[in-house]
Amino acid sequence: MERATMSINRSLPGGVGLFTGFTRLSKGLAAVLVIGYAMTQLFPSTVEYLALVPGKTIPFAWNLITAGYLEQSLFGLILSIIGLLFSGKLLEPIWGSREFLKFIAIVNIVTSISVFITTIFLYYITWKEIFLYTPLSGFHGVLSGFLVGVKQIMPDQEITILFVLKLRAKWLPSLLVLVSIIVSILATDSTSYLPFIIFGTYSSWLYLRFLQRKPETNLKGDPSDEFAFSTFFPEFMGPIVDAIAVICEKICCGGSQISSEEEGNDLGGIPLPGSDPVEASRRRERGARALEERLASAKASQTVKASDESPDDAAENV
């Protein structure tokens, strides 16, 4: 277990091999973000067609997809690329490339639809056209979803932020939402980021909680108590949040819960995988093991490369 923890530490920012081991998929998606930003700089009018402009979404429905991959600022581009590369390095080996891409696509489209509905709702309340014709875009909704994935896989892993603050991974999504709310209050220009972050966080939790299928068990979701919605809030708010969450789950996911219970009964009353702390611990160990195997493979390839180069160096010395 200690070796697995050390492997996770090496894969996290600040560990050994910080800028190595990025996956092809994450690098390809980073290239898409760069191309999108370049288009906004070379052809500014493309923002009106690729960003989410709620007043034009009905004829230009594709902006519900393209808006999530379009960064309009250099700072946002750099932040998105860094977050994408390191998240892909951590999550893709555990989920697999197909599931990693599926997660990004689902979180992106659900976040965009939620932002669209929210802006239309705000327009009909305030009658301010700024809600209809302000171009909204950015990858930050998916980035917030990545933090939820990290929370699920390694909730108790300690991460150092800004080389000073040490925080457990399970609090990263909540901290991001809290900081975004505070910043949006102090700086009105940043309010366009807040809906993406909130809906990105919530939609990613919904997907991981109820829909993501685990290949090792062929079951959907993660019903463990450690990944309940109340874990995003301080402990004293847990009972209140749990009471509200139970009602929402019965309304939105009642059918899936019934089918899961039936599967549990068919197994003779055996708890479903992931429904107890033991299974949650096993899941984290599997994730750590996957990271350890990936790092060992990378180290082995570097050793083979070095051994292949040594004869040439010896010949040059002769």
Automatic annotation (TrEMBL):
Q: Which residues form a coiled coil?
A: none
> Which protein, by its recorded name, is this?
Peptidase S54 rhomboid domain-containing protein
Q: How does it sit in the membrane?
A: Multi-pass membrane protein
Compositional bias (Acidic residues):
309-318
- Give the transmembrane ranges: 29-52, 72-91, 103-124, 130-150, 171-187, 193-211
Record's InterPro entries? Answer: Rhomboid-like_sf, TMEM115/Pdh1/Rbl19
In the record, biological process GO terms are: retrograde vesicle-mediated transport, Golgi to endoplasmic reticulum
The UniProt annotation puts the region (Disordered) at 260-318
Spans of biased composition, class Basic and acidic residues?
279-296
Q: Which UniProt keywords apply?
A: Membrane, Transmembrane, Transmembrane helix
Intracellular or extracellular location(s): Membrane
- Organism encoding this protein: Picea sitchensis
